[in-house]
# Entry
Amino acid sequence: MEKLRGVGFPAEVLEGLLAYARHMHPREILLLLRGKISEGILWIKEFLIPPFAVHSEGFSSFSPWFLPLDPSIAGTVHSHPSGSLKPSVEDLNHFYGRVMVIVAHPYHSESDTAAYSKDGRRLPVITK
Ligand SMILES: [Zn+2]
# Structure
């Protein structure tokens, strides 16, 4: 599998994501990401609400067992109302797909956004 060098967001996709996180704050959001890898960059095309998502304050979870095996799902994004961009141990234990994106309060720009690969490596977030 091609090694990822970064995660790319078209500006309007990132803005939509941050606006949704702002709207849901202080609740945590969890969405699935769909995208395409081009020259090592995973370009996010859209985000989807996972089936059977559970949303509550400070915690969001879903069971990947209920998800169809869908190779177009590239990973997940969830919010950290605490403002931290670091994944928790629980986050790393529930890794789904190839990337985990975290958006942190106050959800203003790509500087409130972090991406991680499955091995916990931080990947650059690119917007265009
Ligand atoms: Zn988290």
Remarks:
- Residues 6-127 form a domain with the Cytidine Deaminase; domain 2 fold (CATH 3.40.140.10).
- Residues 33 and 47 are 5 Å apart (CA to CA).
